[in-house]
Amino acid sequence: MTQRNTAAPGHIEYVLRLGDNALILGQRLSEWCGHAPVLEEDMALANTALDLIGQARLLLTHAGRLEGRGRDEDQLAFLRGERDYRNLTLAELPNEDFGRTVVRNFLFAAFQVPLYQRLTASSDAELAAVAAKSLKEARYHLSHAGEWVIRLGDGTDVSHDKAQAALDYLWPYTAEFFAANPIDDAVSAAGIGPAWHNLEADWEAAVVPVLVEATLTVPARTPFASYGKFGRHSEHMGHLLATMQTMQRTYPGAQW
Amino acid sequence: MYTQSLSIPDGEARGPKKVENPAYQAEFDAKIAAGGFIEAKDWMPEAYRKTLIRQISQHAHSEIVGMLPEGNWITRAPSLKRKAILLAKVQDEGGHGLYLYAAAETLGVSRDELYEALLSGKAKYSSIFNYPTLNWADIGVIGWLVDGAAIMNQIPLCKCSYGPYSRAMVRICKEESFHQRQGYDLLLAMMRGTPEQRDMVQDAVNRWWWPSIMMFGPHDKDSVHTETTRWGIKRISNDDLRQKFVDATVKQAEVLGVSLPDPDLKWNAERGHYDFGAIDWDEFWNVVQGHGQCNVDRLAARVKAWEDGAWVREAALEHARKRAVREKDAA
Ligand SMILES: [Fe+2]
Ligand SMILES: [Fe+2]
Ligand SMILES: [Fe+2]
């Protein structure tokens, strides 16, 4: 049974961006299972991945309903082509090491927190409810990752250098968070959610003091640009999808 | 918290008194005979303490090595619901490892010492995790048979004589039964699916059945448990537990619609139990002694994680040290 599509312009795309961010970062973090530096972090990374996959399920289910073509969370998660995923490029980058993993989680959670905060007042009641539930998780991820950024940045010389290298590598990808676009304009005009470029000040206010405490140098902005949220991904995305989609692609139509 | 795993071993400072003393021994024996609990601060015979450290730490190691075969499928889970369930499960297994290391630490060893013994190959972990996970149904079969066999083994441990171990086991057993039900549910869903899905389930059952049966250890006639039985650590014999497991599992296999790979498996009305075929003990001992398909890879994965993470643990210690110095200076 298909509902009529009554979503405002950009609404579905906007919810897909939210859902895909959670899905793709959750997928990346789940690669850590059994390989973390200490048992507690094995559990914390699995827990963060679990939170994100939970958010993705709610958001993709919602996007599917808005779309009204009968696609459920799994059809959206596993059966789209690469160009139809709307996650930030930052989310799909390889984990590399524990340093890059926690710096990424930190930069991302610092973005998710103000975003979910605004979304709790969304004119889309379903979205507001998901945001309220997810905000608590994002706040926890932010404080957990932030503590590690400080430990690594203000730890040994080796850890400082690794944390700085991770920050330097990831920082250019954060420009994409705030790249203005017509979808954001339409969605914010309709009261569905904030335009992401309006979150930059909040994000910086959360990020910079922690980096300073971690004795890390905040990188300067460069002309580098990435376009994952517009459907143009990095070389890493295809490999992530090949792994994630394998069962659904190999056994079409099977129920699990 | 994570700092616990970074603690420096301080052997003599913690743990029970090590002197052998006939009066204490009599008190200990009386407590065991009355079915009471021994607590961390109580006197205990050195052999009891050592046996517990070995058993609890082996169990802890099994929990964390067990994260690897299941972790092998998280990134390929076929639906988001199953991915979430599996992530929650491996997180539980890590938690079991933590409770058990904490229980072992009450006996005067540090987690790091125990961990070193695992990584150097000196300490054992359950051989079952040296088998590979080859298709998605393996994840369901591990829940159903491996967690199922673990529960059979572990329920009696909820009443074992060492208080901290018994309390850890109560918590763990609850979660293990949840895992078993989820594993079975995964298999039911696959059996309702396509012929290919049913073949995957049968293939997984064929590979995991005998190793699961072996999880109960050697036959009673070939194993020495007199002390652990007398001490109230081991309460039911290997063969009795194995029989209980087989009896319960045969019916579950019927409901599922899979066959168990044992032509000698049949109901024995006289015994009121299922008879089953001879266990290949050569295979069992081969895997125990390090020649299973995954022994080398599993240990290498844990060693790599530990070595790759060294700079992170050092950073955490150094940061804590700097912070303590600053706080002292500020005071
Ligand atoms: Fe266990
Ligand atoms: Fe467990
Ligand atoms: Fe389990």
TrEMBL record, chain A:
GO biological process terms held by the UniProt record: phenylacetate catabolic process
Any single GO CC term annotated in Swiss-Prot or TrEMBL for this entry: cytosol
InterPro entries for the chain: Aromatic_CoA_ox/epox, Ferritin-like, Ferritin-like_SF, PaaA_PaaC, PaaC
One Pfam entry name: PaaA_PaaC
Highest taxon, organism lineage: Bacteria
PANTHER family referenced in this protein's UniProt entry, alphabetically: 1,2-PHENYLACETYL-COA EPOXIDASE, SUBUNIT C (PTHR30458:SF0), PHENYLACETIC ACID DEGRADATION PROTEIN PAA (PTHR30458)
Protein name: Phenylacetate-CoA oxygenase subunit PaaI
Gene coding for it: paaI
From TrEMBL, chain B:
Domain of life: Bacteria
Ribonucleoprotein as UniProt keyword: no
Enzyme Commission number: 1.14.13.149
GO molecular-function terms, A-Z: phenylacetyl-CoA 1,2-epoxidase activity
UniProt keyword list: Oxidoreductase
Keyword Transferase: no
Leading EC class: oxidoreductase
Pfam name, any one: PaaA_PaaC
Gene Ontology biological-process entries: phenylacetate catabolic process
InterPro entries in the record: Aromatic_CoA_ox/epox (IPR052703), Ferritin-like (IPR012347), Ferritin-like_SF (IPR009078), PaaA (IPR011881), PaaA_PaaC (IPR007814)
GO cellular component, one term: cytosol
NCBIfam families documented for this protein: PA_CoA_Oxy1 (TIGR02156)
Protein name as catalogued: 1,2-phenylacetyl-CoA epoxidase subunit A
